[in-house]
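Morning!

This is the sequence you dropped in the shared folder:
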Amino acid sequence: MRMTCLMAFVKQPVRLVEAVYECTVQCQAEQLGKLYSVISKRRGDIYSEELSDDLLTQTSGAASNPQLVFSHWSIIDMDPFFQPQTEEEREDYGERVYEHNYVRRYIEAVRKRKGLSRDEKIVARAEKQRTLKR
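The structure's back. Tokens below.
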């Protein structure tokens, strides 16, 4: 039973969910451009509490502290483990797709923070791993 459930999860495409917050910010009309640039930098969603510092810095203190309210969970429609299979996909995306895949970067950051294994090659002693032909 356990292996059946595990295989059912593995067969389905993996997706990441993110929390979506509703943000209320008050600012003057002259500062709206700077406010929009800060919000668009964060893909229109609020991800961290440093937003208030960033807003106050960019708008020279004209924006108030944002009021954040949890709205819902949203599925990010991007496969974090996508690998190009066909020649056409390789032309479109390149060989190293995960460099531009922000979902993969989120997963790698969480795995690094928690001390879990990652897909990263670490060379402990490079001088012992050299292969020189004589």
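Headline: Strands lie at 16-24, 67-76.

More detail when I'm at my desk.
O.
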